[in-house]
Design a protein that fits this description.
With about 280 residues, the protein is mostly helical. It has 9 helices and 2 strands. A two-stranded antiparallel ribbon has the order 1-2. About 25% of the residues are buried.
Length: about 280
């Protein structure tokens, strides 16, 4: 179990908001590398072998964006070679890799978010103040996994009825349409059921399965302080990095990079600590 699940649902949601907000608002390659490394480590600890497919997809995204960006953007002074009459520049190549790294990092962190944060956690955090918004967000997060499971069930049902296993665009479209119809009916049933139970009414009572403890407050304060420190450095311009027309000579601030790296690997540190204590626990023997 991921260490983040031992806290109140507010803690992991605040943590992911801090990590991904910095990843979105900066193009500094050092911070992007920290985000990518921390996300990969946490994804492996949370999902294990199931993370291989996503990691391969993220690597392909970075490779494709890095290779194709210089074909459309010809800015930069360091010419590597020419494609026709257009220069293939080093600056455009690195900028494409930077964009690919940012997108891959966000995909990885969202995958970890989806594995750690459940629909019940979202309803627990926002259900009292924003009940309708919380219900919509929780249903959106669960839509794709349930759609994939339904697609697999219908496809296997067709295989069981004797349909050929050869790939067919017509059959795929028919199964996908059936999945969308089934999920639409399910959404309508859920909304009617929640309305019948009085969900979202002011007179409805709200129960929370966990209490907010001092441990949770400390767990929020640490990543929030690291996030604020990173944004202070970003606002001061010490982390500014540009690619055109030449690569920026600066952009590396050791204190800021260490703060963001610590923020990204904070859950990994506690997971490794818990595993080490468990393996060396005297009670096991």
């Amino acid at each position: 179990m991921c260490y983040l699940k031992t806290f109140d649902p507010t803690v992991p949601m605040m943590y992911f908001a801090c990590v991904m907000s910095i990843c979105v608002f900066t193009s500094n390659p050092y911070l992007q590398a920290c985000s990518l490394a921390g996300g990969i480590m946490l994804l492996i600890f949370v999902k294990g072998r199931r993370s291989v497919r996503l990691l391969i997809g993220c690597a392909l995204i970075m490779a494709v964006m890095g290779a194709t960006n210089p074909l459309f953007v010809h800015r930069g002074l360091t010419e590597l070679f020419f494609v026709g009459d257009s220069p293939y520049t080093l600056e455009a190549l690195l900028y494409g890799l930077s964009l690919g790294c940012s997108i891959a990092s966000l995909l990885i962190w969202f995958s970890v978010f989806n594995a750690v944060i459940s629909q019940d956690d979202i309803l627990a955090v926002f259900g009292k103040r924003l009940p309708k918004t919380a219900l919509v967000i929780s249903m959106i997060l669960g839509f794709i996994p349930k759609l994939r499971r339904k697609y697999t069930e219908l496809l296997h049902a067709q295989y069981g009825s004797g349909v050929s296993r050869k790939p067919s665009l017509k059959r795929t479209a028919a199964v996908f349409t059936a999945c969308l119809s089934a999920q639409s009916e399910r959404v309508i049933d859920i909304s009617m059921s929640m309305k019948a139970r009085g969900y979202g009414l002011k007179s409805r009572t709200f129960a929370h399965r966990r209490r907010f403890r001092k441990k949770d407050a400390a767990a929020i304060a640490v990543p929030l302080a690291l996030c604020i420190a990173c944004f202070v450095y970003i606002g001061s311009g010490k982390l500014d990095y540009w690619y055109y027309p030449r690569l920026s000579p600066g952009g590396f601030e050791p204190a800021a990079v260490m703060c963001y790296l610590l923020l990204c690997i904070l859950p990994v540190f506690f997971i490794v600590k818990e595993k080490f204590l468990w393996r060396n626990c005297p009670a096991k023997t």
